[in-house]
Specification:
The complex is a heterodimer. Chain A has 9 helices and 10 strands. By secondary structure, chain A is of the alpha/beta class. In chain B, the strands form 2 sheets. Chain B has a 6-stranded mixed beta barrel, surrounded by 4 helices. In chain B, strands 5-6 form a two-stranded antiparallel sheet. In chain B, α2 runs antiparallel to α13 (about 375-415) and α15 (about 430-460) runs antiparallel to α18. Chain B is elongated. The two termini of chain B are about 25 Å apart. Classes of the chains: A alpha/beta, B alpha+beta. At the A-B interface, α2, α3 and α4 of A face α1, α14 and α19 of B. Bound molecules: adenosine-5'-triphosphate (ATP) and magnesium ion (MG). Magnesium ion binds next to α1 of chain A.
Chain lengths: ~250, ~525
Amino acid sequence: MPTPLVLTARGLTKSYHKDRIDVPVLRGVDVEVRQGLVTALVGRSGSGKSTLMHLLATLDRPDAGEIFFRGNRIDNAPRAVRDRYRNHEIGIIFQFYHLLPELSAIENVLAPAMIGQSVWGYFKSRSENRRRAEALLDRVGLLHRAKHRPGEMSGGEMQRVAIARALMTDPKMLLADEPTGNLDTETGQEILRLLADLKETDNLTILMITHDDEIAASADVCWRMQDGQIHRGAVADDAPALATQAA
Amino acid sequence: MYRWLLCFRYLKTRYIALASIISVTLGVATLIVVNSVMSGFSTEMHERLHGLASDVMIECHATGGMPDPDAHLREIERICGPALVGSSVSVSVPAMLGIDFRGQQIGRHVNLIGLDPTTYDNVSDFGKYLLHPENKTSASFQLRESGYAPDRKQLAAAGWRHRRDRVTEERRIEKLVAQEREMMAELRRKAGGQSDESDEQAEAAAAAAAAAEGPSFGPSLSQELISGSSDQLVAAVDPMTEQFPGIILGISTCSVRHRDDSGEVADHFYAQPGDDVRMIFPNAAGETKVINQKFTVVDLYESGMSEYDSTFAFVRLDQLQEFRGMIDPQTGVRSVTTIQLKLAEGTDLNAIRDALRHRFPPELYAYNIQTWRDLQGPLLSAVRLETTILNILLFLIIAVAGFGILATFFMIVVEKTRDIGTLKALGASGRGVSSIFMSYGLLLGFVGSGAGLVGGLLFVHYINDIARLLEMFTGQEVFDPTVYYFTEIPTIVHPFTLVWVMCGAIAIAVLASVLPAMRAARMHPVQALRFE
Ligand SMILES: Nc1ncnc2c1ncn2[C@@H]1O[C@H](COP(=O)(O)OP(=O)(O)OP(=O)(O)O)[C@@H](O)[C@H]1O
Ligand SMILES: [Mg+2]
């Protein structure tokens, strides 16, 4: 029984122009992300994985093609709608964590809530927000470091804070760009276990870029990026997806 | 919400921005200090100038003055209506002041004013600038026993005491000279067969000796020019118990200010209350003659305006009119040269002046009708201009500080590029991101100008202590009382000035942050995230 589609994209193309030289990165990419599955995206460096993820996160616009989130087109939606989509519907995790260095761990986790709510709304639900942020930090095992700045934490700890931050607004989907790329294998495993855990408990959908074949193999779905296109590798639960496509 | 949090955090962690705001702080502080001192100065000056000059002044250029001032006053009353609250007539005449000082004549040209002390005080401040405390409340032209300026040691003896001491001393010397003369005569008689020539020589020598000993009055002007009754008067007055007509001298006409060895400002008086001085002035008749009249200094006048203190001498109106022959022998009507008017508070002085000019047109009357502002127009406008220019310059300084903020903010925006990307990835809008930097600018403006405000106000409050401290360290007098005649630096803080200086500085800080904020808002999130 295939789970419903969360994110779909059709015919995405993207190329960079520099001094009249076109660098085509994506050449007609189709994407289908299903609810509750971990989708792994692998590919050589420079194949355009990050570019695709930025398009899916509406941080950039495709040259052509359409992106739908739960049936609504978002790639050309108004700015405010896209801002809300990023803030509320998805959570993004980066290879280099991208925590705000001036804020403590708990404040970093609270940041999406502060951004998404008006000053008044934030104050009204302040204690609720705070409880949620503390719960999330507890979940990633860093409650005791709540007051620490990113500069005082290790890479793995920062990534865990980043995950807590991505979960703050209770998103439907996580987009992760090489979340373990900057960590040693063991710490990377820890992060992955955490993500797998979250998927189980919160029924999260995860799209994860990785270089690690082992990780890719453990995912529900695995895509391979090559020559600006996606090739579906048959891994584990790939069958339902193919079945839908066939239908 | 995150905007304020981040902007507070940036403020706390980026001291470089605070450094850029220091120029705003200094600019604001300087603006406040300059404006306070300037307005203190100009208010003090306004007050003094206005106090010294009456609201409206009608001067007659003719030496004989305007006949029948009462008729004039009635006419003026009709024109001014109820706005007229006081008036005073006076005679003002250019004169030469002669002070005998150790046998030498010190000549000063002065403006001799004959006034009526009671009405004169209604139209302008006069009594309050006199030295003797009793004269301050009711000016009198009678020499007082003592008690002039209790805080000035140079004038400790001024008054009758000084006069008696001086006369006693003069008489003692005169007596010595007479004895000497007698002795010489005796000697000559004893020698026998002396010639008349040597007798005369001896007398001349004795007179010269007497003159060198101390001040005394001898005819020092050629007699043909002078038609005074002064010499008869001299004979009739016993200086021990009597005085000549009283005169009040501007303090700078008979004193010099200098620094003694310890650097203290000290006055030296050529004449002080109790001394006699000579006044030489033209009479009012068609055929001008010079009148040479002796007066006794009864008080000194110190307004603090050097222009006034160094040119004015005051005597009684009726006496001056008599001396100058300004009384019509047939009718007994006295003429005056000046009418001063005091008008109700808030009266449009220029309108009154114009109405009076209309009534006494210059084609018919040799009158000069001016308000006190007209009299001091150049000075007042110079001060105004100075204040305006200083304000513009200082605001330019703050504007320069604004460019400093601009540069610093651009640096911060560049430094924060990745964070801006992160914020956008978390759903922050361009407006939200730009408002971080705008409110950062606003906050810096507040902090900077607030610090400047506090600093400036403190400076103003302690300005005299600071001046003293500077004097102590540099040995250089910051505020030279020999120049300004104020002992303290006057300051007035106008709340309105504070408000607009603050607003201006904050506006400049915010404006300087607009461009960097716009740049931050326009930043492409992906490029920002990829930024190394
Ligand atoms: N702003 C840009 N201008 C020009 N070319 C760009 C720009 N951004 C990315 N590219 C190019 O696009 C291609 C894809 O980049 P992208 O970052 O998506 O690759 P990637 O698959 O994420 O690689 P990696 O695994 O190393 O992260 C690269 O060849 C890169 O040089
Ligand atoms: Mg990448």
